Amino acid sequence: MADSINNINENVAAGDYASLSGLTTIHNCRDVGKTINKFIGRRVMKEGVLFRSGRLDTATPADTALLTATTNLKSIIDLRTATEHQRAKGSSAPANPVATISSAETYQIPFLSSEFHRKALLAKLPWYRLLQLVFYYVLGFRTAAIRLVTCHVLVPMGVRRVAYECLLYCGPQIKTVFGILSQEKNYPALVHCTQGKDRTGLVTLLVLLCILGEDDGEVKAMDHDYMLSNEGLKTVRGEMLAEMLSMGFPEESGFADAEEGWVDAVVGYIDDQWGGADKYLAGIGVTDDDVKKIREYLLMDAT
Asked: For residues 25 and 9, what is the distance between their CA atoms, to the nearest angstrom?
């Protein structure tokens, strides 16, 4: 195994990553390896190598310094859309201060691609709603347009169906993420979206499935990692709800929370549609060599 990855692992063994719990403005942030290992009860993954979180834009200098010092990030994989980036620019804080201070490479991968919007969202609108949507955009009523799609497509779909549609139409983005994670120079790596729950959750789940497999115990550990988002977002849930309500998501829609049973449902969908995560990944162009390298970088024993 490469020396740099081993050094990271030795540092974690000394307890260097416990301070992640001290973050106050970077929410839903955790070491995926540590979460999985704690649940399973033994060290199956390297710790301090793969992290996940919510957005980083408004990190305070203290949180930025803390995360930088404890993770030594080499790459940040940002799954947010251009609209989310534009919204973040309204903040008084500099964009992505973590990357600026840590010198990490930032990869912006708009996960919800134009194909996703066209085939998963717009295709589900009746013709008169499409005309209404065009009308809103022509007049510059962007928020009204977003609310229309939210109310008439996303909310009826629900959190699980959105994940299914992402699997169908976000293959190129998922392949790009796996390409980044197949390069040693990009570790330690952090994957995030806005909340660090759904898009980040789906990417993390696919990575874990490809390195750990789909045995019951491992899938339960993946579910545990996903469900930790409810705790990780607890302090900002009110703020999240206010933001989501403005976009047309009612609280009862469930989009503000990690949904119980989501992992089992997504794993089942992958099995039903493609015959397993390995076949799904191969179908979108992730190579056996990519998976082999990711296993090497993330597992204690990749044999």
From this structure: 26
pLDDT above 90 for 225? yes
* Cα end-to-end span (Å), the chain: 11
Distance between CA atoms of residues 266 and 254, nearest Å: 16
Cα(13)–Cα(16) distance, rounded to whole angstroms? 7
d(CA 110, CA 145): 19
CA distance 126 to 249: 20
CATH architecture of 3-298: Alpha-Beta Complex (3.90)
pLDDT in tens, 120-168: 999 999 999 999 999 999 999 988 999 999 999 999 999 999 999 999 9
Whether 71 contacts 188, CB under 8 Å:
yes
In one letter, which amino acid is 104? A
Please compute Rg for the chain using Cα positions.
19
pLDDT tens digits, residue range 233-261?
A: 999 999 888 988 988 999 899 899 999 99
Rounded-to-integer distance, Cα 17 and Cα 11, Å: 8
Domain ranges of the chain: 3-298
pTM for this one? Answer: 0.88
